[in-house]
Amino acid sequence: MSEFSINTNLGALAALQSLDATQQALNNTQNIVSTGQLVSSASDNPAIYSIAQTMNANIAGLTAVQDNISFAQSVLGVAASAASQISSQLAFLQQTVTQGQQTGISASTMNSQIQNILNNINNFANNATFNGVNLLASSNAAGVQFTSLTIQDSVNAGGTLQINSMLGTGINNMVQQLNLSNLSVQSGGVEFSFNSSYAPKAGDYLQISNGTNNWVFEFQTSGATPVAAPSGYTLGSNATGGQNYLTNVMISSTSSPMAAVGALITALQQQGFGASLDSNGNLYVLGNNLQSSGTAWEASGTAYASTNTTNEAGVTQTALSGGQAAISIVQAAISSMNNISSIIGATQQELTGMSNFSSSLSTSLTEGVGALTDANMAAESAQLTALQTKQQLAIRTLSIANAQPQVLLNLFQ
């Protein structure tokens, strides 16, 4: 049996409760419509909000990664352009050196042209700087702050890509890197071949002379007491008005013969000589106007003599004519420059792939965040209309319930 009371209006209380629930749902729907997001704060859905925030942070990180990759691509683009120009100069250099072997051609004129080309090569390399980064020059070049590049290529800790300098350790410029220092149409050279009896050890040395300056490259075993310079070889000024130089070539006691020769090649290149192995394992030493008569490979314990011509066991020496040596130097430089260009090109391809992947990953994450947090606006629009109608009905119901106590006055008339 229902009761009529002015103290407790059950109908009004029920209507008010319904109105409060409708108003809360309406406020939530209005917030969704205004933000376009089903989950816009942690209070909406803590778990989904946490996941979405992590994904948004990764998207922001990927934006920075793409910026890093774009910067690296610009650096490599400048380096690739300079490398192309250098390759063109090397082609011209080979033409010049070959023409210089012709009888009747002025060697001094051709050497002057060679020097101009070498200067151009260094200029192209030194000017290949983008925002202080130059992969083809040393840090001594004007405007160069960095000769290598490290970029963050992912949002994960430790996700870095290292792009190294195209110059070797101790190399001052591109001409030296290409073993073209002191190149001339008269450049001499020496070829060394090895057989199975060759066994390098501490104290063995390669002596080189250009008639004025002398160089000794002496093997030293890592961790052992340094071997003294060859007997009869005094460092510093010599009787011909030149200088005597000594370079220690570090090897281990277990180094293979070819590993020792590889260490020697690096030392030769750092001193401005052209040094390389051909496909048969023969060593070519070129440049700096070296003379075959003052160049020899000596075993430890052999006294230094400027006329040494007998090489140690397992080593055979062949003199290269000036024209043959000069052309070989340029051809080796062309091969080296092609290798540098190949490294640059491969790195550019790698960066393009990384850029595409980062862009695709960023798009996928954005879609994922949208799937988790974005609202279905068509559904929310329908929901908003329904709630507004319910709100009006709840208000009307509350108005009727509030008017009920007034009916009780009629009982007392």
Structure explained in plain terms:
This protein has a five-stranded mixed beta sheet with strand order 6-7-5-4-10. It has a four-stranded antiparallel beta sheet with strand order 8-9-3-11, with helices on both faces. The longest helix is centred in the first third of the chain and has 54 residues, at 46-99. The protein has helices at residues 10-35, 46-99, 107-126, 174-177, 257-270, 322-373, 377-407, and strands spanning 149-152, 160-163, 189-194, 205-209, 214-221, 236-237, 243-251, 274-277, 283-286, 291-298, 315-320. β8 (274-277) and β9 form a beta hairpin. Helix content is 49%, strand content 15%. It is an alpha+beta fold and 413 residues long. The radius of gyration is 40 Å and the shape is rod-shaped. α1 (10-35) runs antiparallel to α7, α2 packs antiparallel against α3 and α2 runs antiparallel to α6 (322-373). It is built from seven helices and eleven strands.
Rg measurement, Å = 40 Å
Beta percentage is 5-15%
Order of helices and strands: HHHEEHEEEEEHEEEEHH
Mean pLDDT: 85
Query: How many strand units?
Result: 11
Strands side by side in the biggest sheet: 6-7-5-4-10
Number of helices: 7
**Contiguous runs where pLDDT drops below 50 for at least 5 residues:** none
Q: Quick one: overall form?
A: rod-shaped
Explain briefly what this protein structure is.
This protein is α+β, with helices and mostly antiparallel strands.
Question: What distinguishing features does this structure have?
Answer:
11 strands; 413 residues; rod-shaped; alpha+beta
